[in-house]
Design a protein that fits this description.
single chain, 234 residues, alpha/beta, 5-stranded parallel sheet
Length: 234
């Protein structure tokens, strides 16, 4: 497989992935499909709850590769992260945001708050740069393994998040739990296989693993949708 051909396939896959994301879906070949899909669905729900977002200014704190920017394509979308990050529009520390007060209509932060040493200061900075009646859309893990070490500091219950948000000045509209028990098991299995260092690393190995992820996720979906013993026709 030539580099040019692989790049073409990669572009096509990304286009397909972004199209699916607009519907709150992630390709079944992705090892973290369940996690990303739950985040995408929550962001879509939050976005639709805001109403007309056209022309609004949105800040994505800890934007990474900006995986969810496609969900907000009618706004001025600014991604902030630490260097080096080729996808960030602005470099900056989430604990000392490089903006004046009351700049943004919406702030988004997905799976970042567990990586900041001072989560209350992090939320206070977001509150500061939001306009009056601005909106924060935040996601955080509750059950997840260590990642991006050593900068992985916290896990949050919904009560802990409520406490921190209220203390930082926010009025909470909704706190929603993501994922179910079998989702966690399936996600753990897929990502465990994907990151298992004993498996060889090559294009063929990667394709094989992704096919395995798809089979595992289909199996878990069938477990959820299969009727319980009480529901089966006798």
């Amino acid at each position: 497989m030539t580099g040019e051909f692989r790049e073409k396939i990669g572009r096509k896959y990304l286009e397909r992935k972004n199209k699916m994301l607009l519907e709150g879906k992630v390709p079944i070949l992705e090892p973290d499909k369940i996690e990303k899909e739950s985040i995408a669905k929550f962001l879509l729900k939050a976005r639709d709850g805001v109403g007309d977002i056209k022309g609004k200014i949105i800040l994505d704190v800890g934007c990474g590769r900006k995986p969810y920017a496609v969900l907000f394509n009618e706004v001025n979308y600014i991604g902030l992260d630490l260097p080096p990050n080729d996808f960030a529009d602005i470099y900056g520390d989430a604990l000392y945001l490089p903006f004046k007060d009351c700049v943004f209509d919406i702030v988004i932060s997905t799976q970042v708050i567990e990586h900041v040493k001072e989560p209350e200061q992090f939320l206070r900075e977001i509150y500061r740069v939001l306009k009056p009646n601005g909106i924060l859309i935040l996601t955080a893990p509750f059950v997840w393994w260590l990642h991006d070490e050593p900068h992985d500091y916290f896990r949050f219950t919904k009560y802990g998040l409520k406490h921190l948000l209220t203390k930082s000045g926010f009025k909470i509209e909704i706190i929603e739990e993501r994922g179910r028990f079998l989702d966690l098991l399936c996600q753990r299995l897929c990502l465990g296989l994907y990151t298992w260092r004993k498996l060889p690393s090559s294009p063929i190995s990667d394709i094989s693993k992704r096919i395995l992820f798809a089979l595992i996720q289909v199996l878990f979906c069938l477990l959820y949708t299969s009727p319980s013993p009480r529901d089966r026709t006798r």
